[in-house]
Amino acid sequence: MAISRPSSRDRHGQTTPHVASSPALDDLNTILMQGSMPASFQRSRAIFASDDSSWRPRSFYAHRRQIQRALPVAAAAFCTLLLLILFRLGLFSSDQPPPLIVDPTPPHDDGSSRSTFYLWETASSFKPVTLDPKGKSAKDLCATFPRHILDTIQPVLKLGHADLGKPALDAQMKSVSACLDNVLVFSDLDDELPSGHFAHDVLSDLPASYRDHVDFGNYTYMRQLRESGALDVDKEATAKIRGWNLDKYKFLPMIERAWSARPNHPWYVFYETDTYIFWDNMFRLLDNFDPDAPLYMGSPSPGREVADTKHQVWFANGGPGFVLSREAVRRLLKRKVGADGDFLDAPASHRWRDLLEHDCCGDSVLGWALYKAGVTLSGLWPLFNPHSLHGVP
């Protein structure tokens, strides 16, 4: 036990108590006063004395302190993540609406599970839907026709001068086309029809270079007969006209003329004198499609093959009629524009002159031109078909 020494006075007369002294306290004073540790005070064993204990480097204790400091941060992050998971499960529980799908799958991309036929439920726009035609005039029957739909559909009838006076044209204007106030009629010669409609010559829109075609000579000859007054009067001279050979030249210019006269209609329906259209079915069909998609509908026929491939391009047979959406027409008629606003390429009806010279059919050339414009055929058979009503297979 340490014994206290008596107090002593310093030079100022103050009493200074003596602290209990021992060898250990003397060593401590040496450390405090000199900043060094005497050999007698240094450790000679490990901190945790045991038979297998060994010295641990300072880095071990530094790393342990870092881990101890990081533990609260890791625990806080884990708790935050757990709370977020619980919050989400609680927010979208079974009694809550599902989250909004920002970018849904396009309606037309139904995958392999899509039905091979359309499952639409449609309603007629005719009021009444059925009407006994017995004893009714065309005016009476047309009273049920939904004329407001014609704001979205542009009918285009294609014929030739040779069709005038034929039963097919007369029947067409008294049935399919009877209620169409906005129908456009295009032909190979300007003519006034018995129905009061006017047929516009669309071949006059073609450049003079077309007159070099052998088939196009029929057009030049027919106009000469008209100017001389011999057309339809001189039966022998008129019979020499091969009007069918001119038909292929009408397809592209009639589409250009229809767009020029009635632009931006959602749908353009093209048909001929011997085409019968069930307008109720047509209206219901088109009501289920987007006119701003590049759509080309009709009865499929095999056309040209793509060079160096076995891919065959299909086109719509012109006889049963075909339909173009406004986006399809835009793509077909689109022209490149220069920096000064001038067109750098020819109109669509001028671009395919060489192909028309060697191809038999204008509907085939049209299908190829549409294909080149990025529009492929939707072959909706038998909605569009080349058979008579009682001959559909």
From TrEMBL:
Primary location recorded for the protein, binned into one broad class: membrane
Region called Disordered, residue ranges: 1-22
GO cellular component: membrane
The protein's annotated pathway: Protein modification; protein glycosylation
Swiss-Prot/TrEMBL keywords: Glycosyltransferase, Membrane, Nucleotide-binding, Signal-anchor, Transferase, Transmembrane, Transmembrane helix
Compartment list: Membrane
Gene Ontology MF term list: glycoprotein-N-acetylgalactosamine 3-beta-galactosyltransferase activity; nucleotide binding
E.C. no: 2.4.1.122
Family: Belongs to the glycosyltransferase 31 family. Beta3-Gal-T subfamily.
Name of the molecule in the record: N-acetylgalactosaminide beta-1,3-galactosyltransferase
Organism: Verticillium dahliae (strain VdLs.17 / ATCC MYA-4575 / FGSC 10137)
Organism classification: Eukaryota, Fungi, Dikarya, Ascomycota, Pezizomycotina
